[in-house]
Amino acid sequence: MSPISYTPVEELKPDQHQVNLKVKVIAQIILGEVDDYSQINILQPNAMVLIHNARVEMYRGFMRIVADQNINAEIKPVKDNWIMINDIEDDDGLDSGHE
């Protein structure tokens, strides 16, 4: 079994299928009512979500990640010692290939 390759968000294209992403929860916004059966506490800020087999749709000129019955998502809880790649300053002078 080959390792899963993840697509960087900046490389997403409209109508793309079978997309694998690693995303970080930035903030929570509660819409509607929250009850005892709510799963809102699962997605805490700084948690990482691994999304498998998503697809990209266009809606009013914006791309959306679609989570339908084919998607598989894994939520990694927040850990104090996590370092996200985008949080690290690239000061070694090496070209990382991203502009």
From TrEMBL:
Species for this entry: Funneliformis caledonium
Cited Gene3D superfamilies: Nucleic acid-binding proteins
Matching Pfam families: OB_Ssb-like
SUPFAM superfamilies: Nucleic acid-binding proteins (SSF50249)
Name assigned to this protein: 11047_t:CDS:1
Domain Single-stranded DNA binding protein Ssb-like OB fold residue range list: 38-69
